[in-house]
Amino acid sequence: MALFARLSWFYAKQMGKSILYMGTYTFWFIMLMMRFLIRQYDSFGKTDYGNFVGEMTLIVQAAMLLFMVFFYKLFSDEYRFGANLLFAGSLRITALKIAALFANHLLFLAFFTSLQVVLVWQFYRTWSLPFSSLYTETASYIAAYWLSPLVFAFFLGIFTALLFGKSRLSFAWMVIIWLAIGPVNTQLFSRYFQRLPFSDVRSLFYIGPLNMDDVFRDVIGYNVSLPTYMKLLFWILTSMMAVWAILWKTARTTKEKAAIIIGVTLLLAGDAWVFPHICTGSKLVFSYADLDQENDFYRTHNPTISPSTLRYSIERYDIQLEAKNSVHAKVKATLRQIQGNTLSFVLYHHFSLKQITDQTGKQLPFIQQGDVITVKRSSNRLTDEWTFEYQMNDSAQIPVSPRYLFLPSDFSWLPTKADHAPFAFVNVHSSPAPVSMQPSHPIHYTLSFHGTVPFYTNLPLRSDGMYEGVVSSGITAIAGMFLKERIGPWQIVYPADWSNLEQDWSVFERHVRRIHHDTVQMFGLKGVKLPTNIVLLAPHGEQRSVYRSDHLLLQIDTPYSLHSQEGTLMYLPEILTEGLLWKETHSSRQKEVFQALLTRWFQQQLALPYSGGDLTFDVALSVDSPDGKTEEELRQLFGEYERLSDRKKQKFLALWYKQIKEGADDSWEKTIQLIRMVREGQT
After folding, report:
1. How many other C-beta atoms lie within 10 A of the C-beta of residue 440?
2. Using H for helix, E for strand and C for coil, what is the string for 584-620?
3. Cα distances (Å, whole numbers) of residue 674 to 587, 648, 667, 668
4. Using one digit for the tens of pLDDT, what is the confidence trace for 110-162?
């Protein structure tokens, strides 16, 4: 123990005096401070503070290579100049030297990393981010993606010194290893890794975030999970095993060789224990490949549901959500006016249905095919109560885990009466769009949630963890990293990485009120009030809105402040009008063109920047595979539209919307004729 202490003190002085070692920490610290300054004086008003820590990815990658070089030089120099001969050249001495170096490296890393965590926290406080789990989760991210690669770098540097000694080949070797399994490969080979789902064993070869600009998502938090830590631990254990194995050449006695064999065996057993945890439990919303698989599912699965299996109504749902080790749902549906012995329901296909029982406790036979559940019954009762029990599995499209839930009201997270799937493709240029699943008639809901994370639902709170109410068009259930704030009559649910809303809310509110009011007036919408409960969350990076009588789900994915014209406000007209005017997916090919013109009209009225490029080009892109004739008609339509006055543009848009909703034949010629009639005052 005394020898270990002397070695530790010796190496501590060496490391403390090293320009390379301490200079790497200084470089790391200066780069972090520069990020603070850049954010403080950012002319664009960027406020996505959750993704702030991802911006240091390149700096950590550089620090990893510098540490590898330092430990290689330190250890190889000893052997080159014979410093190892000062001690008995045994395995024990070499192992003690490595352990002493490692202990010092861990102490330095712990100190400087803790200092940086405190600085990042202070940065958050400076920008008025309310204290929440964001702070502790940020520390977890820094431990995973800043600290762990630098621990890994130590063993890689030592292994290189033991393998090559003082050789120029060692530097080429370190660069190759750094590129192959260091965090830098995630950036260099991102196109390759984006094709790998998290369950693919090849994902083991990236240990950095797949996209350094997207390390944090609303509700879900950071791209850090148990598999992330296990993946890093796997590589650290593997590098330790490589170092211990190569010490075989220093072993002289049978006892030393046995110690090496035992050590390698234990480390190999550790890797074997870690390995199964690497490919399960990752946060799939961050996986490009898993999202592509989900999209492909809806390209190829378009279920046909027989109308004869939908002859029933749902009067009530009693829901129990259990979010502990996994997420389980127990949903009792009260059915009325049942006709027939075969009923169909729509339930998201990633939710695994375990059993269905009727009100007597008898299990009912069912088939779950994709998003459709078909249930057989033997009873002839006109009313019944069926209890559906299922596990809610995580997916790239619908994030579900004990740490986060995102279940919007227009999604089939409950067994739903519907004749279509919850997603559909409406444009070849886009991903599948959500299709509203909930009926407009009132349904009585009770909901109990048992979990440890913040929870939101639009149902009134009755008691601790119990919510109940009568709601039209479904309920929203959200759990995870978000905050709630009340400003005047508004209750706002917003991401945990946003700063205090009060200073930005007045501008944002004014634009929301104006767009809502003008849309309702222009298109004669009745009974469409603006809810005072607004949910500002977008875990998938989507831009859409879902209006309900008691809440507005406004998925506005923005890294900028709410009052930013270029980053936030200019997208509001498109998002809000889409949710107000098209409550279901509309198949008309003219809808997208209509939305482009309506968005432009609002942007002009509100003096907002235009969110696209050349409008003629954008309008052409709105139509799937336009031919030459269609492109010419669109140019003509745009030219005719631009010659209208603002008042007549408004009138034309109102008439065109009515024409589309009534099921016109999608004739561009008729639309052009409508513009001319409006211009000439014939309507």
Report:
1. 10
2. CCCCCCCHHHHHHHHHHHHHHHCCCCCCCCCHHHHHH
3. 21, 11, 11, 10
4. 999 999 999 999 999 998 899 999 999 999 999 999 999 999 999 999 999 98
Q: Could you tell me the two tokens for 128?
A: 């008025």
Is residue 374 a contact partner of residue 366, using CB atoms and an 8 Å limit?
Answer: yes
Stated pTM of the model: 0.89
SS3 407: strand
Q: Which residue has the tokens 């109560």?
A: 385
CA separation (Å) from 343 to 16, 305, 361, 373, 416? 74, 10, 18, 8, 11
The strand pair at 490-495 and 455-457 is best described as unpaired
Q: Which segments of the chain have a pLDDT < 70?
A: 43, 79-90, 426-430, 584-587, 611-627, 664-666
Q: What is the pLDDT of residue 426?
A: 65
Six token digits for residue 149: 């690669």
Backbone angles phi, psi at 333, to 5 degrees: -105, 125
CB atoms within 10 A of CB 321: 24
CA dist list (Å): 291 to 294, 298, 424, 483, 510:
5, 11, 14, 27, 36
Length of the chain: 683
What residue type is 314 in one-letter code?
Answer: I
